[in-house]
Design goal:
98 residues; mainly beta; Nuclear Transport Factor 2, Chain: A; 4-stranded antiparallel sheet; 1 helix; 6 strands; 10% helix; 38% strand; elongated
Length: 98
């Protein structure tokens, strides 16, 4: 999927259409491996142990398989007021900023 680096969108702060720069939204900081929440997630999601109860594990290519693409979010920054907004969660295998 090709996305332009500069788009004209509505800015909620300026209350008009302005040129906005587009950046791919980055993921947050990774939780520590030994934190209680991460241990619970590993135990319940099947990363550690059997984990297939009460439903089978999700595998690629099966009838109830995992999705083949990830949703990509974008961060738009208004050039006039420098306000950033998130938007447009689209599925894409490949992303290219043009």
């Amino acid at each position: 999927m090709k996305i332009p680096k500069i788009m004209t969108r509505y800015c909620p702060r300026c209350k008009k259409h302005t040129e906005q720069s587009v950046v791919k939204q980055t993921t947050g900081r990774v939780r520590g491996k030994m934190k209680a929440g991460q241990r619970r997630y590993n135990r319940l999601s099947g990363i550690i142990g059997y984990g297939g109860f009460p439903r089978p594990k999700i595998e690629h290519g099966k009838k109830y398989g995992a999705k083949l693409t990830k949703k990509v979010s974008f961060k738009f920054t208004c050039k006039e007021c420098k306000k950033s907004t998130l938007g447009m969660g689209k599925r894409a295998k490949k992303l290219e900023m043009v």
